[in-house]
C-alpha cells in the first residue's frame, strides 16, 4: 500500500465511524482508519467490539486500528481481522487517555522497548497485510527516532507520527521538527499528524517536514471539505470555503446516511455532536441547537435544517 503523497483521516474514538468516514471520502480523503478497537475485545469475540470493525467498500483503502499489549491476544485478534479483509492493520501507540495508559495500552507501550517489540512482531507475523503504527514521540522527545527505527526493524510498513510526547495529550504545540527528524532517520514512509487546522498549515507543514503524507483529525470535524481544500491548494494555489447551503446539505446527507433516513433512531444521538461541529458559528444557531438536543424525530431534524438554510 503506497501512502506517499496521500492525505488520511485520523482515527478518533467515538467519532470516525463508518458514516463519517464515507462523508470524508466524498471530499477526497485518500484513506481512512477504524475507530480505536480493543484487541482484547476481539479476542473475546465481543459483538460490540466487532461492530466497530464494520466498513463499506467505498471507504477503501481502509485500515483497522487495534490497541493491546499481550502478544498472544494481539496475534489472535490480528488473525480474526485478516478474515475481514481490510487493506491494512494499524497498531495504536499514541492514545494517552489515562484509562488506556493505566492498563498498559496505547502510548504506554512506548515506555518499554522490549514489550513494544514483542507486541509489534506478534501482529506483523500474524498477517500478510501491511501493518502500520500511529505513534507519539515517546515519553521523551529524543526517543522518537529510536521508537520509529524499532517499528521499522519489526517489519512495520509505514508510521503516522503525532508530534507530541505521550504525557501531553493535546496541550502545547505539535513538534513537527521532531517529526521531520524521524522522517530523516527511517526508510519507511512517515505520515505527519498534529495541529493541522487549515489547508495552509497542512501544505506548509507537509513541505517543511518532508513527510510522505499527512493525517488530519480534529480539523475535519464538521469540515470534511478540508481534504479537498488541501488538494486544491496544492494543485491550483487556492481553494473555496463551503457556503452555509453546502454545509447544511452535507449535514443533511450525513444524517440520512447515519440514520438510514431516520430508521436508526439510536444514531440520531450520535449525530448531535456533528450538528454542532458543522454549524459552528452560524447566526442564531443556539436556539436550533437546543431543539436538536431535545428531539429524536427525524422529520423535525430535517425541518430544523431547512429553517437554518432559509435563515442563512
TrEMBL record:
<dbReference type="Pfam" id="PF01207">
    <property type="entry name" value="Dus"/>
</dbReference>
<keyword id="KW-0288">FMN</keyword>
<feature type="binding site">
    <location>
        <position position="162"/>
    </location>
    <ligand>
        <name>FMN</name>
    </ligand>
</feature>
<dbReference type="InterPro" id="IPR035587">
    <property type="entry name" value="DUS-like_FMN-bd"/>
</dbReference>
<feature type="binding site">
    <location>
        <begin position="217"/>
        <end position="218"/>
    </location>
    <ligand>
        <name>FMN</name>
    </ligand>
</feature>
<protein>
    <recommendedName>
        <fullName>tRNA-dihydrouridine synthase</fullName>
        <ecNumber>1.3.1.-</ecNumber>
    </recommendedName>
</protein>
<dbReference type="GO" id="GO:0017150">
    <property type="term" value="F:tRNA dihydrouridine synthase activity"/>
</dbReference>
<dbReference type="InterPro" id="IPR024036">
    <property type="entry name" value="tRNA-dHydroUridine_Synthase_C"/>
</dbReference>
<keyword id="KW-0521">NADP</keyword>
<feature type="binding site">
    <location>
        <position position="134"/>
    </location>
    <ligand>
        <name>FMN</name>
    </ligand>
</feature>
<keyword id="KW-0560">Oxidoreductase</keyword>
<comment type="function">
    <text>Catalyzes the synthesis of 5,6-dihydrouridine (D), a modified base found in the D-loop of most tRNAs, via the reduction of the C5-C6 double bond in target uridines.</text>
</comment>
<dbReference type="InterPro" id="IPR004652">
    <property type="entry name" value="DusB-like"/>
</dbReference>
<keyword id="KW-0819">tRNA processing</keyword>
<feature type="active site" description="Proton donor">
    <location>
        <position position="95"/>
    </location>
</feature>
<keyword id="KW-0547">Nucleotide-binding</keyword>
<dbReference type="InterPro" id="IPR018517">
    <property type="entry name" value="tRNA_hU_synthase_CS"/>
</dbReference>
<comment type="similarity">
    <text>Belongs to the dus family.</text>
</comment>
<dbReference type="GO" id="GO:0000049">
    <property type="term" value="F:tRNA binding"/>
</dbReference>
<keyword id="KW-0285">Flavoprotein</keyword>
<feature type="binding site">
    <location>
        <position position="65"/>
    </location>
    <ligand>
        <name>FMN</name>
    </ligand>
</feature>
<dbReference type="InterPro" id="IPR001269">
    <property type="entry name" value="DUS_fam"/>
</dbReference>
<dbReference type="InterPro" id="IPR013785">
    <property type="entry name" value="Aldolase_TIM"/>
</dbReference>
<dbReference type="GO" id="GO:0050660">
    <property type="term" value="F:flavin adenine dinucleotide binding"/>
</dbReference>
<keyword id="KW-0820">tRNA-binding</keyword>
<keyword id="KW-0694">RNA-binding</keyword>
<feature type="domain" description="DUS-like FMN-binding">
    <location>
        <begin position="9"/>
        <end position="306"/>
    </location>
</feature>
